Amino acid sequence: MIPTQEGMRQQGIMILSMTDGYYSHLFAYNPQYLPFTRLTNSNWDDIAPAISPNGTDLVYSSRKNGY
Q1: What does the alpha-carbon distance between residue 59 and residue 63 come to, in Å, rounded to a whole number?
Q2: How far apart are CA 17 and CA 58, in angstroms?
Q3: From its phi and psi, is residue 8 left (phi > 0), alpha (psi between -120 and 50) or beta?
Q4: Torsion over CA of 63, 47, 42 and 58, rounded to 10 degrees?
Q5: Which member of 8, 9, 40, 63 lies 3.0 to 4.6 Å from 45 by CB, making a disulfide possible if both were Cys?
Q6: What is this structure's pTM?
Q7: Any residues with CB less than 8 A from the CB of 54 and at least 6 apart, and which?
Q8: Taking the CA atoms of the chain, what radius of gyration do you get in angstroms?
Q9: pLDDT in tens, 36-48
Q10: Cα dihedral sign, 10-5-48-13
């Protein structure tokens, strides 16, 4: 189970975009206790993730329309 956004910030969970197959997807990771966990899985690219300063939102860019 992935902790809340604030929990992610406090526990050092990284949110990153990696290519897996043809598309880029978002993953959560912490080297001590969370293996790479896929957060998105669609037929488009999801890139540039960021957690808001207050830790309540995760934002990212997505190419759902192909551009």
Answers
A1: 13
A2: 13
A3: alpha
A4: -110
A5: 63
A6: 0.75
A7: 6
A8: 12
A9: 899 999 899 999 9
A10: positive
